[in-house]
What we know:
The chain is of the alpha+beta class. It has three helices and three strands, in the order E-H-H-E-E-H.
Amino acid sequence: MPQHNTSEPDAPLALGVIEAARAAGIGRSTVFEEINAGRLKARKAGRRTLILRDDLAAWLAALPQRQKVAA
Protein backbone atom coordinates (compact mmCIF):
# COMPACT_ATOMS: atom_id res chain seq x y z
CA MET A 1 0.00 0.00 0.00
CA PRO A 2 1.42 3.43 -0.92
CA GLN A 3 2.52 5.74 1.84
CA HIS A 4 0.82 9.12 1.96
CA ASN A 5 2.44 12.22 3.38
CA THR A 6 -0.02 13.96 5.65
CA SER A 7 0.62 16.48 8.35
CA GLU A 8 -1.47 14.49 10.83
CA PRO A 9 -1.25 10.73 11.29
CA ASP A 10 -5.05 10.34 11.49
CA ALA A 11 -5.79 12.72 8.59
CA PRO A 12 -8.13 11.25 5.98
CA LEU A 13 -6.51 10.14 2.71
CA ALA A 14 -9.27 11.77 0.66
CA LEU A 15 -11.38 14.89 1.02
CA GLY A 16 -14.84 15.79 -0.19
CA VAL A 17 -15.21 18.83 -2.43
CA ILE A 18 -16.07 21.20 0.41
CA GLU A 19 -13.22 19.91 2.59
CA ALA A 20 -10.77 20.16 -0.33
CA ALA A 21 -11.90 23.71 -1.06
CA ARG A 22 -11.47 24.68 2.59
CA ALA A 23 -8.02 23.02 2.77
CA ALA A 24 -6.86 24.84 -0.38
CA GLY A 25 -8.42 28.17 0.56
CA ILE A 26 -10.60 28.31 -2.56
CA GLY A 27 -14.30 28.12 -3.33
CA ARG A 28 -16.30 24.98 -4.00
CA SER A 29 -17.12 26.10 -7.55
CA THR A 30 -13.40 26.56 -8.28
CA VAL A 31 -12.79 22.95 -7.21
CA PHE A 32 -15.47 21.74 -9.65
CA GLU A 33 -14.09 23.99 -12.44
CA GLU A 34 -10.60 22.54 -11.96
CA ILE A 35 -11.95 18.96 -11.91
CA ASN A 36 -14.02 19.54 -15.07
CA ALA A 37 -11.02 21.14 -16.83
CA GLY A 38 -8.94 18.06 -15.99
CA ARG A 39 -6.41 19.98 -13.91
CA LEU A 40 -7.44 18.49 -10.56
CA LYS A 41 -7.85 14.72 -10.25
CA ALA A 42 -10.98 13.45 -8.53
CA ARG A 43 -12.49 10.06 -7.86
CA LYS A 44 -16.06 8.93 -7.39
CA ALA A 45 -17.26 6.72 -4.55
CA GLY A 46 -20.94 6.26 -5.22
CA ARG A 47 -22.35 9.77 -5.50
CA ARG A 48 -19.47 11.31 -3.55
CA THR A 49 -16.63 13.15 -5.30
CA LEU A 50 -13.34 12.61 -3.51
CA ILE A 51 -9.96 14.26 -3.95
CA LEU A 52 -6.85 12.56 -2.64
CA ARG A 53 -4.71 14.80 -0.44
CA ASP A 54 -1.70 14.04 -2.64
CA ASP A 55 -3.64 15.13 -5.76
CA LEU A 56 -4.73 18.36 -4.08
CA ALA A 57 -1.14 19.07 -3.02
CA ALA A 58 0.13 18.35 -6.57
CA TRP A 59 -2.50 20.67 -8.07
CA LEU A 60 -1.52 23.46 -5.67
CA ALA A 61 2.18 22.95 -6.43
CA ALA A 62 1.49 23.16 -10.18
CA LEU A 63 -0.23 26.56 -9.95
CA PRO A 64 1.83 29.40 -11.39
CA GLN A 65 3.73 31.52 -8.93
CA ARG A 66 2.56 35.08 -8.61
CA GLN A 67 4.94 37.48 -10.27
CA LYS A 68 6.14 40.52 -8.38
CA VAL A 69 4.50 43.68 -9.69
CA ALA A 70 6.83 46.65 -10.14
CA ALA A 71 5.64 49.68 -8.18
